[in-house]
């Protein structure tokens, strides 16, 4: 084998190692790890799996992290798993919401459009979640960029129990 061929093989080997090192550095970078922890935490809160939520925190997940759409973990918990406006009960997990709040979740965090966790609970009729959010300082009269409120979301989707709860907490039309 000639010297030129040895040099080419050596350069190829070094190039492959450089690519592997770059991919590994990216994969294990703090930003990528946080994205994976956030995704795991979102799945855990939506399914109501408290053990998985705790495991995600133990691994380093941030309770106030956001998905690529700017939706917080608490908002995902308030929304639930594949919510059905007509049948919200299966994804109403107030225990998960309490756990997140006790871990430091911001109950009044907003998306770019002004959505808050209480809007998700109101939209899908999650009265038990709304009650926990309100008890922990959720603003009941906050408006998004379209001037929607939690009360309007609950009214629009005909969640009468939630409408009553919001009005008792001081929500206005």
From TrEMBL:
ANK repeats: 69-112, 113-145
Membrane-spanning parts: 7-28
SMART domains xref list: ANK (SM00248)
Stored PROSITE patterns: ANK_REP_REGION, ANK_REPEAT
Keywords from the UniProt entry: ANK repeat, Membrane, Repeat, Transmembrane, Transmembrane helix
GO CC term, one of those recorded: cytoplasm
Superkingdom per UniProt: Bacteria
Keyword Repeat: yes
Keyword Nucleotide-binding assigned: no
Cited PANTHER family: ANKYRIN REPEAT DOMAIN 39, MYOTROPHIN
Protein name in UniProt: Ankyrin repeat domain-containing protein
UniProt organism field: Telmatocola sphagniphila
